[in-house]
Amino acid sequence: MKKIASLVLIMIMTVPCAAFVLKQEVSAAYDGVRLFDEAGVFDNITGDFTVDGKHYILLNQALDAYLLDVEAEVGFTVAVVITDNIGNNKTESGAERYFENYFDSKFGKGKDGIMLCINMDTLYDVITVSGYCEGVFSASRRDAIFDNIWSDMLADNFASAITGFGAGVRLYAELGPVAGGTNQNTSSISMDDAITVFVVCLIADIIIAAIFIAAVKNAYKISPAKCASNYLDRTSIRYHQRSDTYIRTYVTKVRVQSNNSSSGRSGGGRSGGGGRSGGGGGRSSGRSR
Q: I want to staple 81 with a disulfide (CB 3.0 to 4.6 A). Which of 11, 36, 149, 169 is the partner?
C-alpha cells in the first residue's frame, strides 16, 4: 500500500514538470533543419499536422519536415527563414545581402539551393538562390512564385505561403534551367574574395616579372674586359736599341743686310664715317651718297 501511494505521488509531481518542459519547448524560437523561425511566428501553434504520412503536433516541425520532403524530391537545398532583424542596413540591397550571407552561413557558400526569406523587419521579402538554382530560378520565375503566394504573405498566413513556395520549387525544378541558364554557380564575387584574388594575382605577377628580369639579365651579361697582354706571346717580339754616333759637326752662318727705310704698317685706321648721323634716331649704314 505504501509503494502504491509513493508511485502515485511521484506521478503527480512528474506531470507538472513534464508539462512545463513541453511548454518551454513549444514557446522557444524554432531553429530547425530547413525552417529557421527567428521571429517566433509559429511559436505555441500546435495541432495534428500530417506530412508525408507522418503526424506532427508542432506546426514548425511539420513545416520543417515539409521542406525536407521537397528537398529530397528536387535534389537541392530548400529552406525558409523568418527574421525580425536584418541588421543595420535596412535598404533593399542590404536585405538581399543579409539573406545571401545567411544562406551561406547555414549551408556553405556556393551550395545549390533556394531559400524563401520572410522579412518581418523591413517587410522586403526575398527569394535567394545559389549555385545550380541560379540557372533554374530566374528573376521571372521567382516573381511567379511570389505572385502565387503573395496573398498569403499579405495576410500573414505564412504556413500556407511556405507550402505554396514548396509547390513552386517543385514545378520549376522539374522544368530545369531556363534558356541561357547555367548549371554552375554564377554568383557574384564578394569584395573580400575580389581583394584576395587581386593580391594573389599581384604576387604572381611580381614573381613572374622577377624571373623574367633575372633571365634577361643573365642572357645579356657582359664579361669583364680582358687585358691585351693576356693574348700576347712575349717571345714572338724582340726589341733592339740602336743609336747614331756623329764624328763632326758643321755650322753655316749667313750675314743678312738690314734696310733702315721705314716699312711700317700703313692705313691701319678706318676710313669714312661709321657712326650715327643726324639726330633722327634711325640707324645709318655709313654709305656715301
A: 36
